[in-house]
Design brief:
Layout lengths: L32 H16 L14 H11 L11 E6 L2 H21 L3 H7 L10 H4 L2 E7 L2 E2 L2 E2 L3 H18 L3 E2 L8 H6 L6 E9 L15 H4 L8
Helix pairs in contact: 2-6
Length: 236
């Protein structure tokens, strides 16, 4: 019998359990403990330097960078491996202008017409407002869409799956020296029409580019580990 080759180290191994669907051996190399921890520390240092950006450079970004970030997003786990997402990208100046106009219309309602004192107060330290100039300045706009159905069938854990994929997408962009922002004007239905994604729900709008030379970000602190992690029953 021709057994599948282990893609991690080239060794031919059998699938040892009975299955009713195709399975492959999964034997990634086990790293020495210190090497694994070093990699974890390096990844933390990289991601800890990431910030959401609202001031972008108009300098061009190759389309391959967007492709690579979506390839990274496609490696995310998803409910039943349905991968219920679609990333729609545009660098078209006319379309970016139309997206900005529609987003600012919704944002003006949010900031000036809706009675949301707690929400507005929570955002105050970020100094955000209805002006979304970055939607025209950033060389790329990418919208992550959630697919509640695929080929007429319901998808499962859709929001969770798309959220994880977007996290991978953001991390990939940062690893390439690019910046983005998780922009979510509410409602975002205008993006479905402008980007021709009927039957899909806009999830996050990402402006993507290099930070502007004079970029500034709020002076924020990450949640400390003791507030983010609890070991129950002690350490192993």
């Amino acid at each position: 019998m021709n057994w599948p080759k282990d893609s991690f180290n080239g060794i031919v191994r059998k699938v040892t359990r009975p299955h009713t669907h195709p399975f492959l051996p999964y034997t990634p190399p086990r790293l020495p403990i210190e090497e694994g921890l070093d990699r974890g520390r390096a990844l933390h240092r990289l991601l800890d330097a990431r910030r959401s950006v609202r001031w972008f450079s108009p300098d061009p970004v190759p389309a391959e960078a967007i492709e690579l970030a979506v390839r990274a997003a496609n490696t995310a786990p998803s409910g039943a491996h349905q991968q219920p997402w679609r990333f729609a990208a545009t660098g078209d100046e006319v379309l970016k202008r139309r997206i900005r106009a529609a987003a600012e219309e919704e944002e003006r309602r949010f900031y000036h017409e809706r009675e949301l004192p707690d929400w507005h107060a929570a955002l105050a330290h970020l100094e955000t407002n209805a002006d979304k100039e970055f939607l025209e300045v950033a060389p790329w706009l990418v919208v992550a869409f959630a697919q509640k159905q695929q080929n007429g069938k319901k998808t499962y854990y859709t929001n969770e799956s798309v959220g994880i994929a977007c996290g991978f997408f953001i991390a990939a962009l940062h690893s390439m020296g690019l910046a983005t922002l998780t922009h979510t004007p509410n409602p975002m239905t205008f993006l479905t029409e402008l980007l021709g994604r009927d039957g899909e729900r806009p999830y996050i709008l990402f402006p993507i580019g290099y930070p502007a030379d004079d970029c500034e970000v709020p002076d924020l602190r990450r949640k400390p580990l003791d507030e983010a992690l609890t070991f129950t029953g002690g350490l192993a």
